[in-house]
Amino acid sequence: MKQDNKEYMENNLSCYLNEQSLISPLVETSLPIAPKIRLGILASGNGSNFEYIFKSIQNKQLNAEISILIVNNPNCLAIKKAIKYKIPYVIINHRDCNSRLEHDTLVTKKLKELSVELVVMAGWMRIAGEEIINSFKNRLINIHPSLLPSFKGVDAIQQAIDKRVTITGCTVHYVQKEVDSGSIIIQAAVPIKEEDSKETLKKRIQNMEHLILPMAIAKVAKNIRTSLKDNK
Ligand code: GRF
Q: Whose CA is nearest to atom 6 of ligand 1?
């Protein structure tokens, strides 16, 4: 891209553009949010998004605090990260519950007990039930590795490869009953290169996830604080 063109794009669009990706809308993560928003993070796997949320807070790029990490899988790597960073965590294993409702209720109860204000599903491999959705209206968000509404559900990266699309990405959205269907908060587009394997593509998508999730948290946190003021 010609330099003047690139400058024009960067100055005039609320997006971030380079050869690798495009983020829209671009959100300033270090927005002053007082008091800090209390986060509950739900994770089932590696916890890399959880780790990046923590790092954004630690680097003072995000005005928030993590009240709790909840995992449903006792063997997930996210737990090791919580221990490393001394973040409180709890295991609520769905296998110990008799029903989805029971698990959903236990998770919701824990979040409420700790006065969590914003719940982030960061690699949470469970479908959110009505209990948590209704308890955290406009305060429950999820990250998904595709440009929604394309490629909902499991293995979104493989779905994109199979359809031979040339651009995919990731999306942070509000959670509603239908999976991967709530209003979109922020998206990043990631080109699929000819030489990409699933793993190289996944890595580039995850790099963008680590950028947009803190941005989405900042955006929703600002909405939460603003609506509180409006209600006074
Ligand atoms: C991410 O790719 C996210 O989009 C999906 O699950 C993955 C979680 O990765 N929902 P990690 O556990 O945060 O590393």
A: 123
